TrEMBL record:
This is Tryptophan--tRNA ligase. The gene is trpS. SUPFAM superfamilies: Nucleotidylyl transferase (SSF52374). It is found in: Cytoplasm. GO terms for cellular component: cytosol. InterPro entries: aa-tRNA-synth_Ic (IPR002305), Rossmann-like_a/b/a_fold (IPR014729), Trp-tRNA-ligase (IPR002306), Trp-tRNA-ligase_bac-type (IPR024109), Trp-tRNA_synthetase (IPR050203). Keywords: Aminoacyl-tRNA synthetase, ATP-binding, Cytoplasm, Ligase, Nucleotide-binding, Protein biosynthesis. GO terms for biological process: tryptophanyl-tRNA aminoacylation.
Length: 331
């Protein structure tokens, strides 16, 4: 049985990108693998949340994990900061992560560009903490969206470097995983780039959005004046709507609108209406469960408490091994 690790930062409500890039795969994988799904609250500290916001956001991710169908009796759901061993492993891994490679990481460069006044060391070493998360439980499969591919590559680099440095084969190489042929990238509604929490409220459709909100957001999505000749290549904003449709609608529906586009007969209003209804239908069960679970504090805390315990057990074992390998010996 392979081990699976993945996490989501506690930065607010989860959107369709988180769902199709990560959680949907978590739910499918839990039956076949030893799974650890955590809430990355340490990673979310890079943006300095208030204690109240941090707590509310951790709770929100826990609710949405459970609502999406992660079964705490099968998979281990835990909070990253409840397993302090991860911070210790992060410290050790930092010793063989080099400044140049950390500065070259695409996510770091993007963060610096977006917020040049908050370039803290936590942002720089974000991929090292992520490697520690993954290696802590010896995961080989890591279900993530396309934007995390480079971080998985860095995790392999750090794991191999550790192995070489201590002449061991202790850490295995983990790989990004998706059930689809390629890692998923769900686009946003603003016509450019991916769906994300930091790209603006209107750009993302959240799992907890009401049907009315979903309709409003989708109807406002960026389009253009339509194709001018048959079989024209789709501009980014239009392609994005088709990519979203491919995630939530039936292949026949996508084909139908694709044919209309290629014949220059498409009406974007119709496409958006269909897209909104299909998003509403695809997210309905999760939305309903979010409402139910939000008020069930006993269920939430039981799931987290038992997950934390299982995660710590695995983490303690790894850290005992790692200390031994590094050469910390008892006197
Ligand atoms: P976060 O919170 O940014 O994203 C959580 C997961 O959602 C995926 N995702 C997307 N997938 C497809 N299309 C999108 N538009 C989209 N937006 C987000 C991300 O790829 C991710 O899988 N660094 C991680 C959190 C983390 C982690 C780990 C993951 C910390 N340690 C160890 C795996 C293993 C992150 O991106 O969180």
């Amino acid at each position: 049985m392979e081990t699976v690790v993945s996490g989501i930062r506690s930065t607010g409500k989860l959107h369709l990108g988180n769902y199709y890039g990560a959680i949907k795969n978590f739910v499918k994988m839990q039956h076949e693998h030893r799974c650890y799904f955590f809430i990355a609250d340490l990673h979310s500290l890079t943006t300095h949340p208030t204690p109240q916001d941090l707590h509310a956001n951790v709770r929100q991710v826990a609710i949405e994990y459970l609502a999406a169908g992660i079964d705490p009796e099968i998979a281990t759901i835990y909070i990253q900061s409840d397993v302090p061993e991860v911070a210790e492993l992060y410290l050790y891994m930092n010793m063989n992560a080099y400044l140049g490679e950390l500065e070259r990481a695409t996510s770091f460069k993007d963060k610096v560009r977006a917020n040049p006044n908050n370039v803290n060391a936590g942002l720089l070493t974000y991929p090292v903490l992520m490697a520690a998360d993954i290696l802590l439980h010896h995961a080989t499969k890591v279900p993530v969206g396309k934007d995390q591919e480079q971080h998985l590559e860095m995790t392999r680099t750090f794991a191999n470097r550790f192995n070489r440095m201590y002449n061991t084969d202790y850490f295995q190489e983990p790989h990004a995983f998706s059930f689809s042929k390629q890692l998923v990238k769900i686009p946003g509604l603003d016509g450019k780039g991916k769906m994300g929490k930091s790209e603006g409220e209107a750009n993302a459709v959240y799992l907890s959005d009401s049907p009315e909100t979903i309709r409003k957001k989708v109807m406002r999505a960026v389009t253009d004046s339509g194709p001018t000749e048959p079989n024209q290549q789709k501009p980014e904003a239009i392609q994005n709507l088709f990519t979203l449709m491919a995630a939530v609608s039936s292949p026949d529906t996508v084909q139908h609108f694709d044919d209309l586009y290629n014949r220059c007969e498409i009406r974007y209003g119709d496409l958006k209406k269909q897209l909104a209804e299909d998003i509403i239908a695809a997210t309905a069960p999760v939305r309903q469960r979010i409402h139910e679970i939000s008020t069930d504090n006993t269920y939430i805390s039981k799931a987290i408490r038992q997950g934390n315990e299982k995660a710590r057990e695995s983490a303690r074992k790894t850290l005992a091994d790692v200390r031994e390998i590094i050469g910390f010996r008892k006197f």
